[in-house]
Amino acid sequence: MRKNICKLQTNMIWYGQNYFTERRSIMGRTFTAEEILEALNKYYKESIFITDGEGNVIFVNEEGARRIGPAREELIHKNVSKLVEEGIYDNSTSLTAIQTKQEAVSALTYKSKDSSISHSIPVLDSRGDVEMVVTTNMNMQHNKEWEEIIAKERAAMARMQRELDHLRLKDHSKLVANSPAMQSVMQTINAIAPTDSNVVILGESGTGKDVMARFIHENSLRAEKAFISINCAAIPEQLLESELFGYEAGAFTGALSKGKIGLFEAASGGTIFLDEIGDMPLALQSKLLRALENREIRRVGGVKNIPIDVRIICATNVNLQTMVAEKTFREDLYYRLSVFLIQLPPLHERKEDIIPLAENFLHALNEKYDAHKTLAPVTVETMLCHRWPGNIRELRNVMERIFVVSPGNELIFTPTPTAKYAVESVNEAEFPALDKVSDLRSFSDAAERWFIERTLKECGGRVGEAADKLGIHRSVLYRKLHK
Asked: Is the dihedral of CA 383, 387, 393, 394 positive or negative?
């Protein structure tokens, strides 16, 4: 047996010397097998254990000897079956690999109560007999450490992916603030943007609350970090918590096997935008408040708290103070979020901004479709008279529609009559009461209004047809309707 062991050691040394001699011209250095084995012995932080085909130990590194217990000198030449009999460890994958001539993997518990995963690979000779078995033992604690490192890397990749997904959906609208109302708003925004203070943006639907939130982020100290938004009204209540805070593997039916990070983790160091915050369920409001106060979250199904560093910007088109009074929104959360309140004016109060915004949208469409279209003068006049109940969102949709349907390169805007004009009943009296008319101007206005409304009713609310019947352009008619 001693002779057999020496032969295997000689073979190992020859293989090492031959390999590194062949690499001399590449590496510029020749290494001996003894040097290779010494490096594995001293510096490899997992156990390496090699036996011959009968289970006799021919090599073990210092880490392997430390885990097993006896000194390296005592282990060399010892048979692994004896180590099992002596209770040094509870089983041997080396013996299994010798018996089956196949790889063997098993959990291993040492006398010291340490545990590892043992992996043995048989090395067969030309006749198919086991010549030696190479075994590595991965420490369980090391496995956990590697798992944590891998999990952190995956979380970082997931954050990057969510940022990319958001950027693909990013609204490229530009901020326009020519009107006094918006200039006042921008003065406040420029003051608070560089801070970390939480902000609530109020305004009607379509007023550009999301664009304003991004502007605040891009002008803050967090501009280089993530900006991630979520619409609290667009996600079912039962899923919103997992979207915000993430979940662990197996947290609920249908959960991903590896778990998933939430938006608070994905936005680490940056800004998270909670749109339609007024639609957040009360139960989740309390968890959001706790996250803001403690600056940490816990994933759904998780047991540990995760530190967070995010700035919160919220938006809503409802009156949060009324909701607080009605007990449908937590008062403590309201005051935690509303360090600053920004009220965005509706578009009809920003007349100086209407045409610049329309031209921004038109510029983007011209670039996209390689066109050179412009706004017709009558379109400019009509747009300034329109009340824009859908605000900037309506303006953007109108620009896209008239870009497609307008003949030629001048875009014509024909407003669709609102329900007010389509169904509004006209006074059945033949003429306005004269006792309500004080002068000639008011009499003329009343008569004109009466005639227009009667004509519009006769045309079933169709503005274009009524304008033709009245002998005026539809944009003029629309302006008169909005007087």
From this structure: negative
Residue 12 lies in a domain: yes
Helix (H) or strand (E) holding 445: helix 440-458
The answer on 330 and 357 residing in a single domain is no
pLDDT of residue 187: 93
3-state secondary structure of 136: strand
Same domain, 426 and 440: yes
Beta strand residue intervals within 284-400, DSSP E: 296-297, 306-307, 311-316, 340-343, 374-375
What is the Cα–Cα distance from 233 to 254, expressed in whole angstroms? 22
Residue 94: strand, helix, or coil: helix
* Domain match, 217 and 358 both: no
C-alpha distances in angstroms, 196 versus 270, 294, 478?
A: 10, 16, 46
CATH number at residue 74: 3.30.450.20
Number of structural domains in the chain:
3
Residues in CB range of 132: below 8 A, 6 or more apart? 8, 50, 51, 52, 53, 58, 122, 123
Span 422-454, pLDDT tens digits: 334 344 445 555 556 667 777 777 778 788 878
| Residues with Cβ within 8 Å of residue 448, at least 6 apart in sequence | 480
Residue 162 within any structural domain of the chain: no
What is the pTM for the complete model shown?
A: 0.55
CA 381/CA 445 separation, integer angstroms: 21
Cβ pair 252, 146 in contact under 8 A:
no
Sign of CA dihedral 376, 379, 381, 384: negative
Is residue 332 one of the residues assigned to a domain?
yes
Residues 33 and 15 sit within 8 Å (Cβ to Cβ):
yes
Residue 159 located in a structural domain: no
In which domain, by residue range, is 183 found?
170-345
Q: Do residues 283 and 138 both lie within one domain?
A: no
Residues in the chain: 483
Final residue of a domain: which of 316, 345, 374? 345
Task: Answer yes or no: do 283 and 135 share one domain.
Answer: no
- 177 shares its domain with 283: yes
DSSP 339-358: TEEEEPPPGGG-HHHHHHHH
Q: Greatest CA span in the chain, whole angstroms?
A: 130
Query: Residue 174 and residue 395: Cα distance in Å, rounded?
Result: 13
The pLDDT value recorded for residue 18 is 45
275 falls in which pLDDT band (50, 70, 90)? very high
Query: φ, ψ for residue 133 (rounded to 5)?
Result: -130, 125
- DSSP element (H, E) containing 68: helix 62-68
Other C-beta atoms within 10 Å of 386: how many? 21
Contacts of 14 (CB under 8 A, 6+ apart): 33
Task: Write down which residue in 127, 143, 159 finishes a domain.
Answer: 143
Reported as a single tens digit per residue, the pLDDT across 342-369 is 999 999 999 999 999 999 999 999 998 9
101: Cβ contacts below 8 Å, ≥ 6 apart? 122, 124, 128, 130
